[in-house]
Write a structure and sequence with these properties.
By secondary structure, the protein is of the alpha+beta class. Helix content is about 35%, strand content about 15%. Helix 2 runs antiparallel to helix 4 and helix 3 runs antiparallel to helix 5. Keywords: Flavoprotein, FMN, Oxidoreductase.
């Protein structure tokens, strides 16, 4: 499958089976993050793999969007390693890039994912005892989709290029 086909196939999975993700597949997803481009190649990303029942319960204190996934990837960046652009640190953008890489690799492997940006970062930092300089950006519940999982109704509704692109 080419990249555009893969991008069109990927959707936000919000219903997971309890089938665990094989270690080799999880490692491929993490490798996709490792090779993702970051500003000045500083690689400030920090990824926490949340799999134990106790750790997954902690996630539920931070957000209602864990979807009972068997694995949740907490993506953060190290503020001390993030490249500073013109007027902001780019760690959040770097974390976004690696998150996208992980979601696409997961899709290629038949593993579903959903991007969760709605969470209480202060509770994440407390529950997972993160140092002050580690900044949470997103949670990625991942796992094999449930047989009932389907793309949201609006998934294939896309604006025409002329509505989102301007040539200058």
């Amino acid at each position: 499958m080419n990249f555009l086909e893969l991008a069109k196939e990927r959707y936000s999975v919000r219903m997971f089976s309890d089938r665990p993700i094989e270690e080799e597949k999880l490692n491929l997803i993490l490798e996709a993050a490792r090779v993702a481009p970051t500003a000045c190649n500083n690689q400030p990303q920090r990824i926490y793999v949340i799999q134990s029942p106790e750790a997954r319960e902690k996630v539920k204190k931070c957000t209602r969007y864990s979807f009972d996934a068997p694995c949740i990837l907490l993506v953060c960046y190290n503020e001390e390693e993030s490249w500073y652009g013109v007027d902001n640190k780019l760690g959040c953008i770097d974390a976004t890039i690696i998150g996208t890489h992980m979601m696409m690799e997961a899709t290629e492997l038949g593993i579903g994912s959903v991007w969760v940006g709605s969470f209480k970062a202060d509770i994440v930092k407390t529950e997972f005892n993160l140092p002050q300089h580690i900044i949470p950006v997103a949670l990625f519940p991942i796992g094999y989709p449930s047989e009932k999982a389907r793309p949201a109704a609006q998934h294939t509704k896309r604006k025409e290029l002329k509505e989102t692109v301007s040539y200058l």
